[in-house]
Design brief:
Layout lengths: L2 H46 L4 H9 L1 H7 L9 H35 L5 H37 L5 H4 L2
Length: about 170
């Protein structure tokens, strides 16, 4: 496979990956908006059931009324899930870095067999070298942030029973 074909395939898969990530972000926004509208609709139906403001105020003062009007959507992020997400991204980046490292080793073996290698292959080897270490450094950073988040959340008691229900 020549260099142009390989670069074209890589670009196509990169574009597909970016499109997939954008779709996931859009879908997340769409579901959050849908949940908010459903909650607003449920509150409106609840308000329609009361004939006067006094009945509604009496209902709100009762235990059942307070439970019903509590916000079912949690505020804030779950610290354990946040740490786990960083560790998962670190794992994906480490796997990508390992793949780049194997490709770098393959390219170096190829260049060692050439008596007078083309300068473009040498530049490609340098590119793989830099991208490999950039991706592996990002993976190490994600692992570090994930473990640091988990450790500090335990130290600061952010992983209480109330936080784990979120």
């Amino acid at each position: 496979m020549d260099g142009f074909m390989q670069d074209t395939i890589m670009f196509i898969f990169l574009a597909l990956f970016v499109g997939w990530v954008l779709y996931l972000l859009f879908r997340r926004y769409q579901l959050a908006t849908q949940a908010k509208f459903q909650r607003i609709e449920a509150y409106n139906k609840l308000l329609d059931k009361f004939a006067s403001a006094k009945e509604f105020a009496d209902f709100l003062e009762s235990e059942q009324g307070r439970k019903m009007l509590e916000d079912p959507i949690p505020n804030g992020a779950n610290v354990k899930k946040t740490a786990l997400r960083f560790i998962q991204v670190g794992g994906l980046l480490a796997a990508l870095g390992a793949g780049l490292f194997m490709n770098l080793a393959r390219l170096r073996n190829f260049l060692e067999t050439q008596t007078n290698p083309d300068i473009n292959w040498i530049h490609k080897e340098e590119d793989y070298f830099y991208w490999t270490w950039i991706v592996l450094a990002m993976a190490a950073g994600c692992f570090f942030v994930g473990f640091l988040t988990n450790t500090l959340s335990k130290k600061w008691n952010l992983t209480s029973e109330h936080s784990s229900k979120r």
